[in-house]
Amino acid sequence: MPHTSVNMIRAHTKQALLLLLFAVVASSIPGDCKTGGIINLHDQLTQVRIFNFLGNGIRLTLHCKSKDDDLQEQVLGNLMDSWEFEFHPNVWGTTLFFCSFKWENEPTVWFDVYVASRDITVCGYICWWEIKTIGPCLIVSQGLQCFPWTAYESSLFSRSVVNQLQP
């Protein structure tokens, strides 16, 4: 009989530890303050806004896409004009939107304006970009975080594929 009591204590200890583990994990997930519920992070609407910071009178033409969505060509004709789009990130955390940018007689350049693995911790669900000749700059709490332009459609595009495309 003592052997059965030891097994019951072990079973209850395992259940208590699992319950404690669940409580710790659940408390680390952001909750909705009004309802006390758990927020599904992938249900969160994400906004990307792009501002023309090229200078007075410089017209910016951009065309943004994801694997599944073509957001069509947009034109920002004046300094500080903006355009935005919204979406729900996918559940795998792999959402990617990239854009081409063209102005005056400059060659077309590209940049990934939303990469889930980069942006969820940098800008969260509101990612605003200033487009400058030197590159796109993300507006963050500390000011601007600027990036270089990429030489092809997406910085996540396989370099081996790019090398196959070159003569």
Determine the structural class based on helices, strands and strand pairing: alpha+beta
Categorize the overall geometry. Answer: globular
First-to-last CA distance: 80 Å
Main β sheet profile: 5 strands, mixed
Q: Can you give a write-up of this model?
A:
There is one protein chain. The chain is an alpha+beta fold and 167 residues long. The chain has helices at 2-28, 116-122, 159-165; strands at 46-52, 60-65, 70-76, 82-87, 96-103, 109-115, 126-132, 135-140, 143-146. It has a domain at 46-161: Sandwich (Immunoglobulin-like), CATH 2.60.40. It is globular. The protein starts with a helix and ends with a helix.
Structure characteristics:
alpha+beta; globular; disordered C terminus; 3 helices; 167 residues; Immunoglobulin-like; 9 strands; 5-stranded mixed β-sheet
Summarize the structure.
25% of the residues lie in helices and 35% in strands.
Note the topology:
Layout: H1 2-28, E1 46-52, E2 60-65, E3 70-76, E4 82-87, E5 96-103, E6 109-115, H2 116-122, E7 126-132, E8 135-140, E9 143-146, H3 159-165
Parallel strand pairs: 1-7
Antiparallel strand pairs: 1-4, 2-3, 2-5, 5-6, 7-8, 8-9
